[in-house]
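Hey, can you fold this one?
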Amino acid sequence: MNLRTPRSPELEEALGPGAPIVVFDRVSLAFDDQVVLDQVSFTVIVGHTKIILGASGAGKSTILKLVLGLICPDSGVVWVNGERVDQLSEAQLMAVRTDLGMVFQEGALFDSLTVRENVGYKLYEETDLPLDDVNRRVEEVLGFVGLAEYIDRMPSELSGGQRRRVAIARAMAIKPRILLYDEPTTGLDPITGLSIDNEIIKLRDLEDVSSILVTHQLRDAFYIATHAAVRQDGQVTIVPAPPEKADQAEFIMLRDGRIVFEGSASELRRSGDEYLRTFLS
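Sure. Predicted structure:
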């Protein structure tokens, strides 16, 4: 069951291991007189994670909206999955978005639909897959996040953490190459937040999903960057990541719309920059 949009061999090669799947090149954006992003440039490598930190209003969530093509920059270029999204029509953007999954801060589930219907929504509405195939995929992704037995429940019957995991299952149902997370653990207790972190790690390491994570939860950010998912004797285990794996998760720190730091978790911890030290404390 292939849910992904077919691509040319040339594009497949260009977006192979080590290639950038998201590129921001000198992107600037302002709303009236308020500068939100100022000459922001970075790349996300296939299968890697970019973790965006910053104070409220620093422009973190704006980056996700630019990736989705919901807004356009005033200047600069945004490439996603080999397409320059800042120049695409709405119809062309829809094709790009089939390769994007989005997990919102509050889960954003449809309260009138069951868990099954929420997770399978895009498959029901935007594909011509047979109903049996859709149901199999929904069962598969709910099993991945450990909620298979909740498939016919309503969102109101779930805890906050379960709702977030359903939102992750919904985002991954179409097998996107890129997942965007907007404060996915905000408002959750530490144990529940850890379960969400583990799902993000599993998707990255077992499904080879590239991800951009916007958060102000430092504990979760460092945990995701420094842990890895492995299969051992048929079971999935979360373990400390070796240095070369941890370096695949890069942090970006935004301040007043500019990138003031970009690097690994270890580099961020070693930084002597006064602003970064204050933020991390």
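The mean pLDDT is 89. Let me know if you want another pass with a different chain boundary.
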